[in-house]
Amino acid sequence: xxxxxxxxxxxxxGAVGRLLAGEGLAxxxxxxxxxxxxxxxxxxxxxxxxxxxxxxxxxxxxxLTPRREMSVELVVQMDxxxxxxxxxxRVQHNNARGPYKGGxxxxxxxxxxxxxxxxxxxxxxxxxxxxxVTVDPRKLSERELEKMTRKLVVAIxxxxxxxxxxxxxxMNTDAxxxxxxxxxxxxxxxxxxxxxxxxxxxxxxxxxxEAATGRxxxxxxxxxxxxxxxxxxxDQKYAIQGFGNVGAWAAQLLWEAGGKVVAxxxxxxxxxxxxxxxxxxLRRHVAAGQTLSSFPGGGSLAKEDILTFPCDVLIPAAIGxxxxxxxxxKINCKVVVEAANGPTTPEGDxxxxxxGITVLPDIYTNGGGVTVSFFEWVQNLQNFKWExxxxxxxxxxxxxxxxxxxxxxxxxxGVPLRxxxxxxxxxxxxxxxxxxxxx
Length: 439
Ligand code: NAD
Hints:
By secondary structure, this protein is an alpha/beta fold.
């Protein structure tokens, strides 16, 4: 595929830009002023895959260029009568495989870093997009937040849509924000539940979405263990950094499968029990407003020690950049399963590789969320609600098939699973572009 593109490089020059961008590449973050180390790290990993595919430098650079960037100002009258202006962005990368899709973030330093070729890895028919508003939502009343969201919809309504670009929740944008988004858009374009995903279950959301990323992570681990001949989920000890949506669901499902979750942490502390924590009890304890470290079913642990806690499977499920080279030299597990976005830096990755520790990359591992978002969209198009078991079964199938694709590239090309994931995604995007043609 790469050589075909090269041969006709001249004719397809304009189209190459389209091809490229794929989903959300870090370069867009730079262009939008808020470059981040996570963006740079993603770029490093992406370049490694591009090198494997033998794309020339010009093509590689073009691959980092989004198809469209929109920047708007939202003028909102606040509760006290003052006028505030918020900057908002939407960046669309590549839609060769289907409508753009990606998160919408509300944050004081909106950076468009969390973007990648995830939908291509999961083989769901979307291209990538990302957007956000530069705002600290904690400083806004609910009414102000709603007004701002509705202004955003009005400002970007011409470039989004059920078959155009489908935003999804991200940092500080939840089901409530998605419900406002859907409502406002429908005022202009008619009933359109499929314009956003992550809506409340009672308002065209999907059953199974809340647990989807943690559940997908569990399916991913199961497939990896099988491929590595490491046995079953029940045979392993797990340590999990982060006990929010993803970490707590992964912990619960691994525990239900008979696995021993020996340590978990959150932003405030950690708890460990080498015989395995009772995750059901622990979740009830936390839901009652108690801290992890006060859980009577385990001993308190310094949260800094979670990543070095002895286990078979280490699951970072909190924040990015936590496994740099120093930490990578100390961690004490057989495999690292990246449920969080960007937990391992490129330097940390090298150390893990040298130590023979397998890394299941975030771009695949946490793809369960976007996959069930896709299922939500399909249900919206059908105007039909699937049973939760149906959602979970289909998610299992997607995660298993995606793993098989990664594993086969990993074996055939002799590259790490992370590189394999990017290779799979790049090949899918490239193939779709080529088959669509360039005129
Ligand atoms: P969340 O806010 O529900 O939970 C985050 C957890 O991490 C909390 O328990 C918090 O206390 C903990 N945490 C924060 N800083 C920490 C620190 N310094 N040390 C230890 N723990 C810390 O978030 P989430 O939805 O569970 O997302 C977790 C990660 O997974 C993020 O990287 C997110 O981008 C990624 N992710 C989430 C989804 C999803 O569907 N929720 C999908 C894809 C990727």
